[in-house]
Amino acid sequence: MTTKEAMSARHMVRKYTGRKIPRDVEEQLMERIHQNNEKCGLSMRLVTDNADALNMFIKLVLAKGVRNYIVLAGKNFEDVDEKLGYCGADVMLFAQTLGLNSWWVGGTFSRSGVKKNAGVADDERIAGIIAIGYGATQGIPHKSKRPEEISSYAGTAPDWFQEGVGAVLLAPTALNKQAFNIRGEGNKVSMTCDNGIYTGIDLGIGRYHFEAGAGKNHFEWV
């Protein structure tokens, strides 16, 4: 499965089976996390066989069987949220290529439970978690905006721009707001996002998806 195929196949999954992640799959996932940490100066980590990531209400009402998760953490520098969004998106889609399902959890995780089990330092920010494992279902597509609601291009939009926008609309965003504003002219593209406290995370996720959809060789960010 390619990254583009993973973007189309990935949907939010909140309920998981008890199937353990095989060791070889876990090692591939940990290596991908390590690569992203090294590239962006983050400290994301994988926690397995632990049920403390969600508070009791969420576990009873919304989610079942969440026992593996990726902690989105890093030193609290200026653009840490955007980097966590970007790198988290990479790891999430890589997990999909390995046959795993996922759920990006931004505001309803148990901060104390995660910190206790993941060894997060006091000077590190936890921006959320990605629940991961074998889903009871494959999930369903989320409701999406139309491309023209989040983007515009000066002139006739080339295929790569349209594919990039389409990829962004497949991305998970806080409260599914898809609060993006993507503008293109020639090979120059700008992207902004206005989603309150989740702006940085959503912008990082959106940038990753656009690059994966459009192809980095077709454009440059401005």
TrEMBL record:
GO terms for molecular function: oxidoreductase activity. Pfam families: TM1586_NiRdase (PF14512). SUPFAM superfamilies: FMN-dependent nitroreductase-like (SSF55469). Residues 3-214 form the Putative nitroreductase TM1586 domain. It comes from the Bacteria. This is Nitroreductase. It comes from Diplocloster agilis.
